[in-house]
Amino acid sequence: MPPIKHVFVINIENKGYDKTWGPGSAAPYLSQTLRSQGVLLDTYYGTAHNSQPNYVAQISGQGPNTQMQSDCQSYSPFTGTGNASPAQAVGTGCVFPTSVPNLTGQLNAQKLTWKGYMEDMATPCEHPALDTVDPTQKATVGHQYAVRHNPFMYFSSITDSPSCAQHVVGLDALTADLASATTTPNLSYITPNLCHDGHDSPCVDGQPGGLTSVDEWMKVWVPKILASPAYKADGMLVITSDESDGPHSDATACCNEGPGPNAALPGITGPGGGRIGALVLSRYTKPNTWSTTSYNHYSLLASIEDIFRLPHLGYAQTPGLNRFGLDVYNSGRNRS
């Protein structure tokens, strides 16, 4: 493992591999300029449909249930009905109890730092009250934040903590945090709003949305990350999508993903969230290269846990699951 100490993750919304990374991509800055600077994982898959369970998978390894597959229209507490291997909470609902672990608890235990940066979030740690309808399912002018794209809000261990407001903040806070390596978290998890992540097209404020708005957002924020002291010293940036265009477009899977205890078909119409691709940028990756190794969101979680020497959670424990190796860290500079 290279000595990576700062990981940045950015998700865009509902874009299959060909749409984002193909020659006709409407996001040339992402698909050409940035792509030429790193390694493209061209066999990287989402793990579910719809959006919400993919985000949850990235920080916990938990698979979907029917409420999660419907994007948690109601902010309902998870009700457990049993346990299953490997480390899956069995039951229904959206907000997991403190007994269900996630990556942030692992980082806290090792005195490592983390933050979620959420564009358009009105107040830090913003989420609905339990058992109420989620009002952020549809964008409004001036508030295009979506709780379902913020996985930290689905774990009581985070939302019930007094420190939640310091950990899950608005995107604007990222600029100041990037000023020095000491103020940059070990994990920075970044979610654009419903327009800039490509979810809406057109957007409620008149912007075009889709990959066009994704590209404009990337032009502003990615250079800030790449120029930061933390990234230049020992950073890694992963840019991917939550899922493909939808369950009826592509619900394929990789990496031995199969039926879970709460959803026979994680992709609603198939076993997964479809082929989406991922781009990895770092001093430890070689520009303009690619990997054909199969990965998914559980692989990403396992790879982040490997970087920080943490045990694997949930489906990140899946036997034989591919984790980032020398196909990704391919620059030949894997020592500091």
From TrEMBL:
Transmembrane segments: none annotated. InterPro entries: Alkaline_phosphatase_core_sf, Phosphoesterase. The keyword Electron transport does not apply. Gene3D superfamilies: Alkaline Phosphatase, subunit A. It comes from the Bacteria. Pfam families: Phosphoesterase. The keyword Hydrolase applies. Keywords: Hydrolase, Virulence. This is Alkaline phosphatase family protein. It comes from Terrabacter carboxydivorans. The lineage of its organism: Bacteria, Bacillati, Actinomycetota, Actinomycetes, Micrococcales.
